[in-house]
Structure formats: C-alpha cells, structure tokens
Amino acid sequence: MYKWPMDIIRLYNPLTPEIQQKLKAYKGCAVVIGNFDGVHLGHQELIKASKKNGKKSVVITFSPHPEEVFNKSDQFFKIFSEHQNIERFKLFDVDAIIIVPFEKEIFSLSANDFLKNIIIKTIEPRHIVVGKDFKFGHKREGDIRFLEEAQATYGYKLNALPKLSDEGVIISSSVIREHLMKGEIEKANLLLGKEPFFIEGEIISGQKLGHQIGFPTANIIDVRVPLKKGVYKTRVLLDGQMYDSISNFGSKPTVNNDLKVKTLETFILNFSKNIYGKKMTVYFDQFIREEIKFSNIEELKTQISKDVQQAYLDTGSTKV
To answer: What angle do CA 170, 262, 304 make, to 5 degrees?
Structure first.
C-alpha cells in the first residue's frame, strides 16, 4: 500500500536550527490538531478538509497520549503505538506531522499561550481544522468559541467539523477501543477505514508446543492493546507477502501460569519457514471464539483444527 512521503518533526525546547529550518517549509499551511489514536474515519475527514484549500497539510499531535499522563491506571491502552499511528498518517497524504511532547510545560499552558507559542509562532497556519468538540490548554479551557474569536488576532481561518457517526454512534477512538475489547473486529475495522486493526512485532521463540501438536506458531510477546482475549481469523504480512492465518491473543491458560502477560500466537497456513527474529504484521479480520483453558493438550489440538476449518471453510485454504 502506497505511503506518502511525510516529514516527522518533534518539537524540542529549544528548537534546533535543523528543526527551525524544517518548520519554515510549512509556514502558511493548513493544520489539523488532535490526539489521533487510530487515525480513524473521523480523523481522516479532518485531514481531507485540510487539503481542500491547496495548502500543505500538517498534523499536530501529542506524545505521550494525554490519557497516558493523566490516567495512571493500567486500564488504558492505545489502539496503535505512536510509530504505527505515524505510518497510518502516511496513507492519507499528510505532508508533515509535528509531535508536541505532552509534558507539564505544555499541559500547564493557557489556551492562548498554547495557540500563540506552539501553533502560531511555530508554523503560522492559514487554516486550522479541528473537531467541534476539540478542547485544549490548561484544564481544557480552549474550545471552538475561543478559536473562532482568535481568528482575527492571529490571521487564520477556522474549520470546525462535526463528529462523524455510524448508525447513530459517534466515531471516536474510545468507541473503537470498546469494539476491540468486545472482540467486535469487523465493527472496529469499519471505523478505522482503509487498513484494518493490526498488531506487529518481532517473532520470538516460544515453548514450541505448537510444533509438537502440528500447529507451529509465530509468537509476539507482551502485547499491550485493547483487545478481547480469544481466537481470531487473521492475515500475516511477512517479508512483503500476505498469508492466511489464525491467531490466539491472550495468556495461554492451558499451558501458562502467568495470566497477566498477553501473547499473540499465530498459526500461518501452508507455511514452514524459520522466521524467528523477523518482524511480522498480523491483521485481524474476524473473532472466532473466546480463549479457553483445556484439560489436556489433545483437546487443544482438536480445537485448533476446528478453528482453522471454521475460519477458512469457504476459502479453499484449509490445508494445514
């Protein structure tokens, strides 16, 4: 899938000469501001709006995600990592992404100081595109009314878009996380658009139990995503090739006592190469069943065979 060449600019204080030079290329751009976890259909509409005026399209976002700063529990997981979100932006012809460090120095700024010092002085945008519910600055004091009133002062034009909805439900990163936590992969993928939900990582050597029972798996360990534990119909991108697969996401209760660490185990159909140490991307298409603790390994083997048949009954890919 083609990805647009995109500048990635991190705002450090003070700005280095190299960063200052890069920013000059985007003076007078159209800027889109937000957190953008998932780069879903709603985010994509903001990007499209920023490109309609013929200006360069620049995304301003934050790292870490504000929820990771203010929500200290271990219950918040991003849909995608920062790197993965950046790669998704490239699918939508964004010219540059400016990443603002979400530190106390930043989130303590008043709305006016943030607008003036972080947005205006940095790239002097001619257009600012945000969602109508966008809020920013200390205690989220900045809103659409504030941005409207500041247009005359700072010389930009504001475009505030209403949130997209799907069957009456607002499209948001939170809604997508809820779908993923329920195993509703098709619904999550519909809202993500263009590229489905995926997990990527380095393949590590596991207990090799899969080899022993005839279903060798490629494993990614310590996976932190908001996904329901269970078995999924998936596809694997490996060395530029796509393969049919099924994957178990969870804690492997049949053979594992540490139920806190989540692992993604993927059985790739019609495949027998040694791929330890390689990077793979696993795309999720359909939830098959919940994770089960079996009484013995033979029960596990029988169920995996049934999972493969169920996932690929109508595809002609059932040879294992």
So the answer is: 95
Range of the domain at 260: 197-311
The answer to whether 215 and 226 are in contact (CB under 8 A) is: no
Reduce the DSSP state of residue 96 to 3 states and report it. Answer: strand
At position 53, the amino acid (one-letter code) is: N
* Token output for 36: 């953008």
Which segments of the chain have a pLDDT < 50? Answer: 318-320
Inter-CA distances, 6 with 88, 92, 94, 190, Å: 11, 10, 6, 25
Q: How far apart are CA 104 and CA 238, in angstroms?
A: 40
91 and 204 together in one domain: no
160 and 12 inside one domain: yes
264 touches 248 (CB < 8 A): yes
pTM score of the predicted model: 0.90
Query: What is the end-to-end Cα distance of the chain in Å, rounded?
Result: 29
Which pLDDT score is estimated for 201?
96
Q: Which residue has the tokens 């005359």?
A: 152
Q: Which two tokens stand for residue 240?
A: 């530029």
State both tokens at 3: 């990805």
The predicted-structure confidence for 145-174, as pLDDT tens digits, reads as follows 999 999 999 999 999 999 898 888 889 999
Q: Biggest alpha carbon distance in the chain?
A: 72
Structural domain includes residue 254: yes
Q: Given this model, what pLDDT does residue 319 score?
A: 41
